């Protein structure tokens, strides 16, 4: 985040008005640096520290290394993945999936749904056969307020502008059962948020055995990584063109990892180890 502000890159959390102004940029950098200093100092006083992903772990380790308070807390830093309900989704069939690219995320600005729409347009531009084959993008997510509703309207306008009305579907505020039905039938999942601490939607894709593409390498190689509409379109193409045996093998790997790493049992074990550390520290 600091790097983006320093480079004066306009984004959802760095308005163009701020990015264009040297004074606003420097003021924001000062505020962020003071906040980071306070955050790193508080981390230095905590033991143990449990984080929810490798991305968060790297971020916390960086903050600890720049803390004004000397600390050996990095030694007590451990990853404890949040518990995810993988049991239901891991029962879905691995075969018979439809040519559906599924997005599962709230309609918030940082989720960057527009990139997914542009990626599908790019896919159809470079591989028009997929449009003829009926490949579809389904965007499922909740709308919290008027701002989110306006965002959905803008996304629908983009779909209309790109003439993709018959290839993209919006499902807003879907029930959990509806979400499960789409997870059971889709073949590809996509996530376009950058710097996400823990993408539970990606875990759900994995448990449901959906090949996924995402911007960050939070997991083992059981999907594709992309950064812009062009690379996402290429990832979609690679996933859609996978020979059936390879696609099945990837789904099996993803499901096995989700069940092993993100289960309730795994979370309880990691939490218990952290608590034991606290008890030992108190006794000593």
Automatic annotation (TrEMBL):
Domain of life: Eukaryota
Main location: endoplasmic reticulum
Residue ranges of every copy of the ALG11 mannosyltransferase N-terminal domain listed in the record: 1-63
GO MF annotation terms: GDP-Man:Man(3)GlcNAc(2)-PP-Dol alpha-1,2-mannosyltransferase activity
An example Gene Ontology CC term for this record: endoplasmic reticulum membrane
Claim: Zinc is one of the keywords in the record: no
Domain Glycosyl transferase family: 93-209
Topology class, membrane: Single-pass membrane protein
PANTHER family linked to this entry: GDP-MAN:MAN(3)GLCNAC(2)-PP-DOL ALPHA-1,2-MANNOSYLTRANSFERASE (PTHR45919:SF1)
Database matches in InterPro entries: ALG11, ALG11_N, Glyco_trans_1
Cell compartments where the protein resides: Endoplasmic reticulum membrane
Protein name as it appears in the record: GDP-Man:Man(3)GlcNAc(2)-PP-Dol alpha-1,2-mannosyltransferase
Keyword vocabulary terms for this entry: Endoplasmic reticulum, Glycosyltransferase, Membrane, Transferase, Transmembrane, Transmembrane helix
Pathway(s) where this gene product acts: Protein modification; protein glycosylation
EC annotation from Swiss-Prot or TrEMBL: 2.4.1.131
Catalytic activity as recorded in UniProt: an alpha-D-Man-(1->3)-[alpha-D-Man-(1->6)]-beta-D-Man-(1->4)-beta-D-GlcNAc-(1->4)-alpha-D-GlcNAc-diphospho-di-trans,poly-cis-dolichol + 2 GDP-alpha-D-mannose = an alpha-D-Man-(1->2)-alpha-D-Man-(1->2)-alpha-D-Man-(1->3)-[alpha-D-Man-(1->6)]-beta-D-Man-(1->4)-beta-D-GlcNAc-(1->4)-alpha-D-GlcNAc-diphospho-di-trans,poly-cis-dolichol + 2 GDP + 2 H(+)
Originating organism: Rhizoctonia solani
GO BP of this protein: protein N-linked glycosylation
Residues that span the membrane, as ranges: 29-50
């Amino acid at each position: 985040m600091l790097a983006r502000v320093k480079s004066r890159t306009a984004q959802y959390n760095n308005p163009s008005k701020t990015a264009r102004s040297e004074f606003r940029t420097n003021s924001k950098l000062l505020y962020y640096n003071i906040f980071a200093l306070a955050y790193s100092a508080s981390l230095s006083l905590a033991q143990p520290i449990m984080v929810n992903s490798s991305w968060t772990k790297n971020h916390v380790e960086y903050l600890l290394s720049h803390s004004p308070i000397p600390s050996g807390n990095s030694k007590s830093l451990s990853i404890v993945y949040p518990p995810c309900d993988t049991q239901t989704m891991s029962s879905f069939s691995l075969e018979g999936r439809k040519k559906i690219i599924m997005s599962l995320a709230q309609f918030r600005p940082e989720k960057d749904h527009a990139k997914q729409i542009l990626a599908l347009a790019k896919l159809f531009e470079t591989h028009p056969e997929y449009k003829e084959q009926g490949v579809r993008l389904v965007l499922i997510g909740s709308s919290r307020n008027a701002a989110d509703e306006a965002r959905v309207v803008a996304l629908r306008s983009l779909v209309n502008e790109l003439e993709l009305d018959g290839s993209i579907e919006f499902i807003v505020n879907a029930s959990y059962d509806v979400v499960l039905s789409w997870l059971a039938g889709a073949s590809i999942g996509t996530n376009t948020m950058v710097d996400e601490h823990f993408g539970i939607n990606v875990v759900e894709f994995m448990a449901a055995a959906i090949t996924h593409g995402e911007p960050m390498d939070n997991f083992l190689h059981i999907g594709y990584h992309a950064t812009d509409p062009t690379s996402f379109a290429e990832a979609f193409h690679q996933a859609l063109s996978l020979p059936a045996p390879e696609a099945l093998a990837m789904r099996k790997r993803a499901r096995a990892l989700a069940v092993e790493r993100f289960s309730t049992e795994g979370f309880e074990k990691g939490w218990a180890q952290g608590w034991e550390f606290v008890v030992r520290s108190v006794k000593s």
